């Protein structure tokens, strides 16, 4: 099964765009779809940080509002900025394989988001003020979905979820807690494309995710 996680087939990821959610601005308790729609409405045509000047689209995130598993990445890339969807490039194809071939879960049944919702220029790292500007909206997304397990993909997501400045190489292998939700940090799929030997480590992390979902 480790080989299945390591494989990258290039299959197009399936996703539920946020546009399919209810546009209600007030929500009934226990309705994650409506809660997410309210978060998106609050976000609006966001101008809260300097990334707004260069983006094409806000990448809010997509998937199943009632997901038991949520992935949090770093930031949108060029293809995500064009399409308005999270993880649709080569790294997204690899993430799809990790979810569907490794965890045996349809990608449409998880939720996928990023620490920041606009593409940084030249795909540079997110800056602290940008992360802080997006933080309330990611917090509200997690509160709305309330998954059983959160997976932090890469340094910035893992550090945000753990509230730690330790490198991802030290954070992975641990299970953290975010408001009672189990947190599993692992390497970003883009890192795996550059360092395929790390796929074995990600597979070990996904086995932890699989076991946590069974609890």
Strand-helix topology:
Layout: H1 2-6, H2 32-43, E1 62-63, E2 69-73, H3 78-83, H4 90-102, E3 111-114, H5 128-145, E4 149-153, H6 155-162, H7 168-171, E5 176-178, E6 181-186, H8 189-194, H9 199-214
Parallel strand pairs: 2-3, 2-4, 4-6
Antiparallel strand pairs: 1-3, 5-6
- Using DSSP, what is the number of strands? 6
Q: Any idea what the shape is?
A: globular
- Measured between the Cα atoms of the first and last residue, the distance is 21 Å
| CATH architecture grouping | 3-Layer(aba) Sandwich
In CATH, the homologous superfamily goes by the name Uracil-DNA glycosylase-like domain
In terms of per-residue confidence, which ranges show pLDDT below 50 for 5 or more consecutive residues? 1-28
Based on helices, strands and strand pairing, what is the structural class?
alpha/beta
Number of H/I helices: 9
Gyration radius over CA:
16 Å
Q: What do the pLDDT scores average to?
A: 89
Order of helices and strands: HHEEHHEHEHHEEHH
The overall number of domains is 1
At the fold tier of CATH, the topology name is Uracil-DNA Glycosylase, subunit E
- Percent of residues in beta strands? 5-15%
CATH class: Alpha Beta
Amount of helix: 40-55%
Largest sheet: 6 strands, mixed
User: Strand order, biggest sheet?
Assistant: 1-3-2-4-6-5
């Amino acid at each position: 099964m480790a080989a299945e996680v390591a494989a990258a087939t290039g299959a197009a990821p399936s996703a539920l765009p946020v546009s399919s959610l209810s546009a209600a601005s007030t929500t009934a308790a226990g309705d994650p779809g409506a809660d997410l729609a309210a978060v998106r409405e609050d976000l609006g045509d966001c101008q809260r940080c300097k990334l707004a000047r260069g983006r094409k689209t806000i990448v809010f995130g997509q998937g199943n509002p009632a997901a038991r598993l949520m992935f949090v990445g770093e930031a949108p890339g060029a293809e995500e900025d064009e399409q308005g969807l999270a993880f649709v490039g080569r790294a997204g194809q690899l993430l799809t394989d990790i979810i569907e071939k490794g965890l045996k879960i349809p990608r449409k049944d998880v939720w996928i988001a990023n620490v920041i919702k606009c593409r940084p220029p030249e795909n540079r790292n997110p800056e602290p003020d940008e992360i802080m500007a997006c933080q309330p909206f990611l917090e509200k997304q997690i509160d709305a979905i309330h998954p059983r397990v959160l997976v932090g993909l890469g340094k910035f997501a893992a550090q945000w979820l753990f509230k730690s400045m330790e490198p991802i190489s030290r954070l992975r292998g641990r299970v953290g807690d975010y408001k009672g939700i189990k947190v599993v940090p692992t390497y970003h799929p883009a890192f795996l494309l550059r360092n395929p030997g790390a796929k074995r480590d990600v597979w070990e992390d996904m086995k932890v995710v699989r076991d946590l979902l069974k609890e």
